[in-house]
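can u pls check wat happens w/ thiamine diphosphate
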Amino acid sequence: MPDPTLRAADVLARRLYLAGCRYAFGMPGGEVLTLVDALENAGITFVLARHENAAGFMAEGTYHRTGAPGILVSTVGPGALNGVNVVENARQDRVPMVVLTGCVDADMAHTYTHQVLDQPAVFSAVTKHSFTLSAASAHVIADKAVSMCMEEQQGPVHIDVPISVADQDALGEGELRPPAIPVVPSDVVMLREILSRAKRPLIVAGVDAVAQDAGAEITAIAERLGAPVITTYKAKGIMPESHKLAMGGAGLSPLADEILLPLVAEADVVLCLGYDPIEMRAGWQNPWDLSHQTVIDVTAVPNHHYMHHASYNVVGSCRETAFALLPEYSEANWPDGRLAQVKADLANVFAPEPEWGPAAAIATCQRVLPPNTLASADSGAHRILLSQMWQCEFPRALVQSSGLCTMGCAVPLAMGQSIVEPNRTVVSFSGDAGFLMVVGELATAADLGLKTIFVVFVDASLALIELKQRGRQMKNRGVDFGRSDFAAIARAFGGAGHCVRSTNELTEALNTAQMADTFTVIAVEIEKGAYDGRI
Ligand SMILES: Cc1ncc(C[n+]2csc(CCOP(=O)(O)OP(=O)(O)O)c2C)c(N)n1
Ligand SMILES: [Mg+2]
């Protein structure tokens, strides 16, 4: 619960105290008076030095004897700049230091310039990270600053503190979240025991598991535990999706979340392997409750995302860790049929339309194209449906931009794969707007003699954005556009083109495309609003 008596500066000061800091050094100006007050209230002695640079070296001195980060306090403008030398020294000498500078409020900076300069830009160059304090996130910023400056390689972190923010009530949680416990190799035995004893273990795998090629290890540990595996879109296929323990991909579909998040909530132990929530929507912010669930997070890098927290955090190779964690026995005991039910529910909500539509088209492509097909997806409504439906039997079977979600990636991603494997079936799936962003690359496909199949979902709409606009009861503006003749465009660039409006026509077009000696564009004509209720 928020504590109404705490100012943002108090939250910051208390977190520094918890990190073991007992001294702060600097020279105050009017802009940091609240900060100095808060530090002293928290039990941190403020030492007045005669120059900010010397203050920074005194702070470093305390670090050498206590192990806690040094604290440097400088006021706006000249005070902040006087500290730059020692801050860069801390970066080069791996000294954990929290650098607090006063600054004018953002609104004021538009009409007031005295002593004002871009302090975050200055300190970004000489620190591991520069934050600007906000009242709502003071506890998060304080926690991140402390952990980031202490992580390897240790160094300085900067927090710019606007005058009025320091005084504002801290709106966020007054309590500080317990940090995940970093795990040392000897803890592996204890974690293996936790996994062995789990009654309902569950695995979440993400992009770093793919980058580290951890498919075999993940499949082995899932099978040993009888644990269902949910992946991000990037990690689809890390374990064959036809496997009875594979629950498919998740991330952007509220429909899938309705089925998968309850399963996560039922788990008693969650093992995250290379799972980076950068791909996930808001439903995956803190999807578990650490008061009664144990979460073991095996990550490539320390957690700076704060999308979720874990009970234990192993920073390192998820492949080697998964191998090391493989338990000898398992007490797992998911209720009979529960996992099969989840798979059935997912198949049901993402079932193809009986006649025609984007889901019927996706199902047809998967049925007709060979099992070793390489697919890519663009950004938009079609991509969410595709990612939920497309069954991947091996890693990288479906590639896409799911962290940044940029349009215009599917066509060139597919072309790059066709260049390396010219005789393999490679298919890209794009929306009509995303395809038009990169349509000129068809000329490159022609130059290179690629036989890539480009499927375009033609709905004359930025469907995903139109859905959101309608969902907010807003007028239809800037989301509709004309239908282009994509088959004719393909022919104009020297490829083959088909325009299809039924599963039969699509089947025929796919078969022809696989025998063609040029690239093929297949325009899948669908209605506006075709994704309603389907993603
Ligand atoms: C480069 C870029 N610009 C804008 C967006 C925002 N955006 C996400 S989906 C989308 C609509 C894409 O329309 P379309 O390619 O026709 O796909 P559909 O949603 O209709 O399936 C837009 C504009 C984005 N993700 N990337
Ligand atoms: Mg579209």
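Residues 378-382, 405-408, 431-434, 457, 459, 461-465 surround thiamine diphosphate (ligand 1) (CB under 6 Å).
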